[in-house]
Write a structure and sequence with these properties.
The protein has 210 residues and is an all-alpha fold. It has 12 helices and no strands. Helix 8 runs antiparallel to helix 9 and helix 9 packs antiparallel against helix 10. The N and C termini lie far apart (99 Å).
């Protein structure tokens, strides 16, 4: 009887272990889903994680990134602002809140947050150059082209392979009438994407002034 009981107990423990392993295997990784552009599924996973653990900072961050990527900007702003009540100093939440405001045209609010992000985050942060790019875009919207030149120059220093960033830098410099440096930026954009129409046109305009 004792041996029989031990056997039953062993089989029960084994079954429980297998079930737990299977559950772990089936659990979806929200960050992997986000990186695979499966934004809606990432949002769903994050919402479940937050419901189970309201203090899950990483879940809030991935949720907000996925909402922005899915163009749900108002929802992203609302969730990021709510998350910052719990984690006011997390730089990831500061940056994604800034992005959500940027895409809604809340330029001044977004700019303050982006400035706060670059002042607080390490330069090695994944979105450091991205923040400078958005700052440059805001300055272009505000026709502050010298400021845009500075911000966009910083952005390509941290990520030099984005042709659109170089093209916008060329445009900012063109608006400052710095035609030679504008051409250099447009050339860099065209070296990455030879078919970029805006850079081709911008370079042609600048050359007409020399």
């Amino acid at each position: 009887m004792n041996k029989y009981f031990k056997k039953i107990l062993f089989l029960l423990c084994f079954a429980v272990s297998c079930y737990a392993f299977a559950q772990q295997a089936e659990r979806k990784d929200a960050l992997k889903l986000y990186n695979a552009d499966q934004y809606e599924e990432a949002i769903e996973v994050c919402e479940k994680e937050i419901a189970a653990n309201p203090d899950s900072l990483d879940s809030y961050c991935v949720l907000c990134w996925a909402l922005v990527a899915n163009k749900q900007y108002m929802a992203a702003e609302e969730r990021a602002a709510k998350a910052r009540e719990l984690f006011p100093y997390d730089v990831r939440l500061i940056e994604v809140l800034a992005e959500s405001k940027f895409y809604q045209g809340k330029n001044s609010e977004a700019l303050v947050l982006f400035q706060k992000y670059v002042a607080s985050a390490p330069e090695s942060a994944t979105r450091y150059g991205r923040a400078y790019f958005f700052m440059g875009e805001i300055y272009i919207r505000q026709s502050q082209f010298y400021h845009a030149d500075i911000a966009l120059t910083a952005s390509v220093r941290y990520d030099s392979l984005r042709y659109y960033w170089w093209s916008q830098l060329g445009y900012a410099r063109e608006m400052c009438k710095n035609y030679k440096t504008a051409i250099a930026a447009y050339d860099k954009a065209l070296s990455i994407n030879p078919g970029d129409y805006d850079s081709t046109r911008g370079k042609s305009r600048c050359e007409s002034h020399l």
